[in-house]
Model the fold of this input.
Amino acid sequence: MAVLTINLKKLEHNARLICDQARAVGVSVYGVTKGLCGLPAAALAFKQAGVAAIADSRLENIAAMRAAGVAGPFVLLRLPSLSRVEEAVKLADVSLNSELRTLQALDNAAAVLGIRHKVILMVDVGDLREGVWPEDFPPLLTECLRLRHIEVVGLGTNLACYGGVIPDENNMELLRRLAEDAEQRLARKLVVSGGNSSSLASLFSGKFPAGINNLRIGEGIVLGREAINRQPIPGAYLDACTLTAEVIELKTKPSVPVGTTGQDAFGGVPVFVDRGLRQRAILSLGRQDTVPEGLAPVLDGAEVVGASSDHLILDVTAVPGMQIGDLVTFIPGYGALLAAATSPYVRKVVC
Ligand SMILES: *Cc1c(COP(=O)(O)O)cnc(C)c1O
Done:
C-alpha cells in the first residue's frame, strides 16, 4: 500500500521559519491545510509554529479539524456556496468572498444564529480566478456595510493560481491603495492579504511590498518551496511530506512497446523514445493515488517513465541492487501531494 508520511517536526519547523520571517515585516500567516486534506495533527503543528489562523478550502476539512479539537480560528478559502451558507457561518470564523448575493445570504444565516460572520473581500488584480475587479471593490464594501451580521475584516487577492500572474509592485500597490481607502472609510485597520506561497520569494529576498500584512501559506510550509519558480526556501525541509510505494515487478524490457499502438488507458496516444533494453520497476502506485508526473524519486538515477490507474513504471537501469518488495520514496509536488492526501488508498502516517 502506498504511504504518505507526514513529519510534524519538519512541518512545524517550516511553518515557524515562514511565520518568523513574516512577523519581522509585520505580516501574519494563515496556515493552509488543504494540501494535507485538513489533517488535524498538521493544523496543530502549524498553530504551534505561530500561524494566526488555520485556512482550508473545504468545509469538510474544517469540520474534521474542529471535531478533532483544533481550536482555530478557521478561515474558509474557497468562496462559500450559496447552498451551504449555514454551514459556512457555523464552521468558519472568516470566509473569503466576492459575491454580494452570497454575502447577503451569509448575513441572513449569521442573523439566525445570532452571530457576526467575518469576511475578507477578494479583489482580482489580474490572475482571473476569484475576486471583484478593483473598481468594483468600493461599491461592494458600501453594500457590505449595510449587512448587520457581516463584519468586513479585510481584503485580499489571489495570484499565481489560474493565470500564473506573479505578485509584483503594480498589483500589490493596487491592493495597498484599495486597502488604504477602505481603512480610511471604516476608520480601522484591515487585514490586507496579499497572496499565497507565490509571495514567499519576495518575503525571503527582503523586498516584501509595503502595505501587505497577511499571507495565506500552504505549499511553502508543506513542501518548503516558494510557488513561482518552486525554489527551496532557505533553511526549510523539502521532505516534510513523502510518498512511498512498493516494487511489485522488476524486469528488463524494451523501451518501445511491441506491436501496433493505439490510445492508452486515458485516451492519450503515447510517444516512446527507443533507449534500448531498460531495467524497469513497477510500483503499487497510480492515478488513483496521486499525480505520477509530480513525483520526484529520492533514489539517485531512478526516473518515472509513466503510469496508469494503479501502476507506476520507474526506470531503474541506473539503480543497482533493486529487488521485489523494496520501498521507493518520492517527494511529491503540490498536485501529487493534494491527490495523495485525498486518496482513500493512500495510508497516512504521521511521525
Ligand atoms: C490554496 C489557497 C492558498 C494557499 O496556496 P499555497 O500556494 O499552497 O500557499 C491561499 N489562498 C487561497 C484562496 C487558496 O485557495
